[in-house]
Design brief:
Layout: H1 2-21, E1 27-28, E2 31-32, H2 36-57, H3 72-92, H4 94-108, H5 115-135
Antiparallel strand pairs: 1-2
Helix pairs in contact: 1-2, 3-4, 4-5
Length: 146
C-alpha cells in the first residue's frame, strides 16, 4: 500500500512541476529557451512516475525487495549541504560551489579515498559548465573565482 501512495504522490508532484514548467517558453531543440530543460525533465518525470504508479497498482512493483536502512546523520548532513549550496551558489559561483558540493556528497556517500571524489567532482562540474555556459550560453554565477 505504501508503494502505491509514494508512487501516486510522485506522479502528482511531477505533474505539478510539469504544469508549472510550461509557463516558460520551450523554443526549439536547435534554439532552446528557458523552458526547454524544465519541460523536458518534467515530461520524463511524468512518464517514469506514471509507469511506476501503474506497476504498483498492478501489484508488480518492487516494494517487497526494498529494505529501508536510513542513517539519519548522513541524511541530515546531505540536507544541510544542499541548503548551504543554495545559500552560497550566487556568491561563491557555480564552479566552486558545485565542486565542493559534489565532493562532500560523495564523502557522505562513503566513496573511499580523496582522489576519485575530487576528480569526479571537478570533471563533472567542468563538463556541466561547458554544456550550459559555453554551448547553451546559459548565464551562470561567476562568484569569487572570476
Amino acid at each position: 500500500m505504501g508503494e502505491k501512495i509514494v508512487n501516486g504522490f510522485l506522479l502528482m508532484l511531477s505533474l505539478f512541476y510539469t504544469v508549472n514548467a510550461r509557463q516558460y517558453s520551450f523554443g526549439r531543440p536547435t534554439a532552446p529557451k528557458t523552458g526547454f530543460l524544465p519541460q523536458l525533465i518534467g515530461y520524463c518525470a511524468v512518464a517514469v512516475s506514471a509507469y511506476l504508479f501503474i506497476q504498483s497498482l498492478r501489484g508488480k512493483g518492487d516494494a517487497g525487495n526494498v529494505k529501508l536502512n536510513c542513517d539519519g546523520r548522513r541524511l541530515a548532513g546531505l540536507i544541510g549541504v544542499m541548503a548551504a549550496y543554495i545559500l552560497v551558489f550566487k556568491s561563491a559561483g557555480y564552479l566552486l560551489s558545485t565542486v565542493i558540493l559534489l565532493f562532500i556528497v560523495m564523502k557522505i556517500g562513503r566513496v573511499k579515498g580523496w582522489k576519485v571524489p575530487a576528480a569526479v567532482s571537478i570533471i563533472t562540474s567542468g563538463c556541466f559548465y561547458l554544456i550550459f555556459k559555453v554551448f547553451l550560453s546559459v548565464p551562470l554565477p561567476s562568484g569569487i573565482l572570476f
